[in-house]
Task: structure prediction
Amino acid sequence: MSQVTDLAAMAVDLIATQLADARKPAITSSFQSECVVLTDLLRQVRPDIPVLFLDTFHHFPQTLAYRDEMTARYGLNLINLRAAEPNIGLWKTESTEACCARHKVGPLFSSLENYDVWFTALRRDQSPSRANLKEVEPFKLPSGNAIRKVAPLAAWTARDVWRYAKDHEIPLLSLYELGYTSIGCEPCTFTATSLTWGRTRASAWSTSGTLPTGHIALGRS
Result:
């Protein structure tokens, strides 16, 4: 078997183990490559698992169209999360931190109160801050409630993700073909050749040396 086949088998085993005693599990997905791969793996064990998508009102049209395409293709139990009081353009009128807090972190944490196991497509190779990411760990919500966070792809690389997608004929978001390597909200996403913002979304925050709150909480999923 190939390395990716072995990784996928281990991921499915972990997923099955974590679902065994889960009362209300869910996965967060931004419909980037790793999110779709994890969804594909989860569907092998729990086809009806809720798929939480943060509709920030700032996504690329292509992302929303792809979300709908994959939802129809897989018959996903999609749940769109939105801020109670959205403020389009808040990243520009106030700050990216405020925009992430309003449109990502708030809706996510509010929704996660309804679940006990949270599956995420975070990987250790995504940033230095995730180098010690555990596959399973407790996660405390702002309310003080603790849930279980599960990252079945923690040990995967970007190459592994793309190989799995290719091997399983999973179509990926078309924006990758335009040079994007990490795709989030349109105002904060830039192509790999952007001279202003660098090679990935993370470089958009390089002046502070940290990722914004939304990225810390959500990663890419």
Confidence is low (pLDDT under 50) at residues 195-220.
